[in-house]
Amino acid sequence: MTTHKYDLMIPEIPYRGNRVVLEYVFVNHTGFELCSKTRVVEKEPKCVEECPLWDNYMWNDVHGRLEDLKDMILKPVAMFENPFYKSPHKLVLCDFWISKEQPAAINTRYTCKKTMEKLDYDQDTGYRPKQPFEPWFGIEQEYFVTSDDGIPISYEPDKFDYESMVLVTKIGHQHAKNVGIERELSNRHLMACLYAGVDIGGNIRENDASQWEYQIGPCSGVSIGDHLNMSRYILHRLAEMFGLRVTLHPVPVHGSPFTSSGHLNFSTSHMRAKGGIKFIRHAIDMLSKSDEDALLKMYDPTLTHENKERLTNTSSPWHPQLHKFTCDATNKAKSSVRIPPLVIVNECGYLEDRRPSSTIDPYAAAEGIVKACVFGDFL
Ligand code: ADP
Ligand code: MN
Ligand code: MN
Ligand code: MN
């Protein structure tokens, strides 16, 4: 493995003075890659509205064509504490705008927000209905830790048969040669997210060599995207310090059985209330009838082809199959959609769509599942 650089970090520089560092964080045209740049302001912002607008060059098209490279406005939308330089410094998530009124074409947050508002306000009267939907989302982010060549750092194909191996939750170097440094990255990420105020729910050692997962949520409405994006940013920043790469690609090593998911968990107030399982079953029925290609494109606007590679990869037993919709409590691994065991016991809760990949665009996906289950837009 490549030597990790974590122990080479210089000691923390003490902070003096009153000025505050804002690390502006934004998603590029891919919908899952994070970028950042930093500015210094005179006083600590108390809310995101106090963070100034900025600008940045970005491709205003998911294909990243040269002619679509535009100078656009960066608008702060969510503010977190900075786990790298500590309070009062901040991480500031932004989305892209053409003008103050016109969102950029790559701004999937804007349309997501509009759809979420439709759920909680009567379109004719503008009033809140008696029982608003109050959508909640949770995303399970899987990723691989790799060295510079893109190969998972604990991968030993001569030693293990990964197709029959079950590594999930296992501890010990006998199963994975670099699990110690991977676990340290995963746990430090968890602590950094908690410091920042990112709504992380836990982490788990996943099934493949050097594969890990953490969960974000449940978050209400559009905030699922803000929290997932900031968690991804913190993960990549920490990996930089360790001298390691992390990849969110669903099939990081083509032709291998390795695949990463971004399971999407969803509920409405009706599903969470007593007896809500009937609404969960209704939503699953809507999903089963929805055009799968259209929905997968919402889940992952730029890398649908990579997700299709994952869903047609027959050498991995750990994911659903393309165009074979199932909701099967007895075969979790291959099920497209799942009702978790405790939801069945409690007869209320949420459902899990297991088809989205690890490069899921959280805003587009949250909007997509609402359009499919509630508005029936893909029937
Ligand atoms: P599993 O690996 O069994 O699929 P996890 O524990 O990894 O389950 O993930 C469960 C996910 O479900 C988490 O992201 C969590 O935030 C989310 N979740 C829990 N309750 C709800 C709910 N009521 N509505 C939406 N998402 C939820
Ligand atoms: Mn999980
Ligand atoms: Mn998982
Ligand atoms: Mn899951």
What Rg, in angstroms, do the CA atoms define?
21 Å
Structural class category? alpha+beta
Percent helix range: 25-40%
- Tell me the number of helical segments per DSSP (H or I, 4 or more residues long): 9
Largest sheet: 7 strands, antiparallel
Which regions contain 5 or more consecutive residues with pLDDT less than 50?
Answer: 1-6
For the termini, the CA-CA separation is 49 Å
- In terms of DSSP E residues, the strand content is 15-25%
Compressed to H and E, one letter per element, the order equals EEEEEHEHEEHEEHHHHEHEH
Strand tally: 12
Bound molecules: adenosine-5'-diphosphate, manganese (II) ion
What does the average pLDDT come to? Answer: 92
The global form is globular
Secondary structure elements and pairings:
Blueprint: E1 20-27, E2 34-41, E3 54-59, E4 69-81, E5 90-97, H1 108-120, E6 136-146, H2 179-196, E7 200-205, E8 211-220, H3 223-242, E9 245-247, E10 264-267, H4 269-272, H5 277-289, H6 292-299, H7 304-312, E11 337-338, H8 341-346, E12 351-353, H9 362-375
Parallel strand pairs: 1-5
Antiparallel strand pairs: 1-2, 3-4, 4-5, 6-8, 6-9, 6-10, 7-8, 10-12, 11-12
Helix pairs in contact: 1-9, 2-3, 5-9, 6-9
Residues 140, 263, 352 line the site of one manganese (II) ion.
